[in-house]
Amino acid sequence: MARLPPLSALPAFEATARLGSVTAAASELGRTHSAVSKQIKHLAEDLGGDLFRKSGTGLVLSPRGEDLQSALGPMLQELAEVAEGLRQGPARPLLRIAVGATFATRWLTARLPRFYAAHPDVEITLLMSGLVNGRPRYSGGDFDILLSYDRLRGPVGPELDPRPVGHAAYGPVCAPDYPLAYGKTGWHAPMRFSHVGGPSAWAVWEEISDVVIQSPELREHPHHILALEAAAAGMGVALTERRLVANDLDQGRLVAPLGFIEVPDGFHAALPRNRPPQAATLAFIQWLSAEAMA
């Protein structure tokens, strides 16, 4: 290894150079004036010349001292940052999960404490997302996992690798006293709701269920959760996935007169194809599969 200067003297030099005074440096470092002076003198002798010169009542750097300070400052800063990182311990793996607001608020967030309990070393950031024309709003570089339960809106884009985590089940829901009724020409309702991003959901559900609900008006809401709340308020019929309304059904806010049609593997986690998944990603998918079956 190349011969190094006396490392223990470098803090004394740096403080004196920054403060312009041995007395001030000694006070900052918690040492005596004599001890700091001796360290600077020893360092100067090792480097072959004076590092400071007197200027009035203070000190200024000599050309040799200026060279040392310019090299030493960045090194000490980098060393301080490394030390602080080591004191704090290793960084926690970060999972960025893109998920629709309705699914996040009505199903996922209530279960996340169980994931944290099993994986306390992983940190999760939720990105409010969704599918628009079958494509995620975020690019693959912005998230690690895109959660998609709404298979009625078609497949995800080719840049994503879908990993099934459970079945999905879809059906119409409404308030208990809403006039969704079966007549001579089939099922009728005054109003049906859809939401932005899923205009074809009703048509796909009718195809897989072989049931048609006739209504004079189909009103689109900007978010799925608003369509569900409007249905609970007795304003119409919304089409949804069973997990999103489980609590509403239990509480009697909503009913599902026609039940739910199950789509195998309809709930999945989609991963960007442009990079391999990290260990935390695979752990989350495994946990999610267990939660989806519960």
TrEMBL record:
Gene3D superfamilies associated with the record: Periplasmic binding protein-like II (3.40.190.10), Winged helix-like DNA-binding domain superfamily/Winged helix DNA-binding domain (1.10.10.10)
Coiled-coil segments: none
Domain HTH lysR-type: 5-62
GO terms under biological process: DNA-templated transcription
Pfam families recorded: HTH_1, LysR_substrate
Keyword vocabulary terms for this entry: DNA-binding, Transcription, Transcription regulation
GO molecular function: DNA-binding transcription factor activity; sequence-specific DNA binding
The family this protein is said to belong to: Belongs to the LysR transcriptional regulatory family.
PANTHER family linked to this entry: HTH-TYPE TRANSCRIPTIONAL REGULATOR, HTH-TYPE TRANSCRIPTIONAL REGULATOR TRPI
Protein's name in the database: LysR family transcriptional regulator
Organism: Tritonibacter litoralis
Lineage: Bacteria, Pseudomonadati, Pseudomonadota, Alphaproteobacteria, Rhodobacterales
